[in-house]
Design brief:
Layout lengths: L3 E5 L2 E4 H23 L4 H26 L1 H6 L14 H19 L3 H26 L13 E2 L7 E2 L2 H18 L9 H19 L12 H21 L2 H5 L15
Antiparallel strand pairs: 1-2, 3-4
Length: 263
Amino acid sequence: MRPILFQVWGMSVFSYGFMIAVAFIAGTALGVREARKRGIETEKVIDLALYLCISGIVGARLVYVLLDLPAYLEEPLEVLRLRDGGLSFHGGLFAAILVGIWFCKRSGVNPWVMADVAAPSIALGYSIARVGCFLNGCCYGLASNLPWAIACAAGDVTRRHPTQIYAALGSLAIFAILMRMRDHKRFPGYLMFLYVGLYSILRFVVEIFRDVPRFIGPLSIAQVASIIVGLAAFASIYLLSEDPGRKAGRTLSGPHVHGQGRS
């Protein structure tokens, strides 16, 4: 692993933080391009990306800390130690969605249209961020003798499932699916619901191979959350697809939307 990617003038650049920054830049650039097709101003996308980045990190860290609160009560300053990982994606996504809805309503942008814009960017950014986990040596998997198993942390001689790479490749596949369907004719927001559903499946599968505490029987907390969130996402797709009112507004996701409309 390579926790420190390189040094600049004697200062260390950490792999995890660097890849988070790359993920943010790549996701924002993609979002700007997709938003232009829908007539949404570039400035609004960049502003939203900054809000989502900050709220996502805060939400992800908050949920991660709450899930292991006794340990952080003993060492409060560890809450601020982000370079070793320690982020809950479900927490970050939930916080980002809430802030995104608030921002869109304040800015006069249809939040469902913006959700369609954001979904592929999130999938791409997540894939890049998981490479950061791999380089950092966190989020590793169970012991394995498979040919591609590797030692995932400094000083660890045990070969493990590279679950960070599983997650990165899986998210890249989801990104490809979303990009292929970005000109869909379904209801506005469809891509975001689809992303949440597909991500939930991916996370559930990857968790099978991760070295994490089990919450209920063989299931981890993330797997339980994935079941609940995934079912909710696919149920929403079904219900909204059957709703004539939402179908009538599906053209809002087309290329001629100017960021306004029913929210």
